[in-house]
Amino acid sequence: MKEWKAYTDSIESTHELGRKIGENVSENMVILLDGDLGAGKTTLTQGIAKGLGVKRNVTSPTFTILKIYKGRMPLYHIDAYRLEGAAQ
Q1: Is 30 part of a structural domain of the chain?
Q2: CATH number of residue 48's parent domain
C-alpha cells in the first residue's frame, strides 16, 4: 500500500486536487480518506468524482453508508464512521 499526503488551504484547492486525482486514477484503485468531521473528505471526493466524469451531485453517505456514482469508472463513496467493525 502506498501512502500519500497532501495539504490544501481552501475548498477550491481541495476540490481541484480531487479533480486531478480523479483524472489520474486507474481501474481497481482504492483511495482511503481519513480525517475528522469537517476535514474536507467529501469536498475532495466531489473533486475526484468530477475528474472521473461523474455528472451527479456527490454528497456524504453518512446515513446510507454507501453511494455509487457512474463515471468513466464507478466511484464507491463509503462512509465507515458509524461502522463498529469489519463484519459490518
Answers
A1: yes
A2: 3.40.50.300
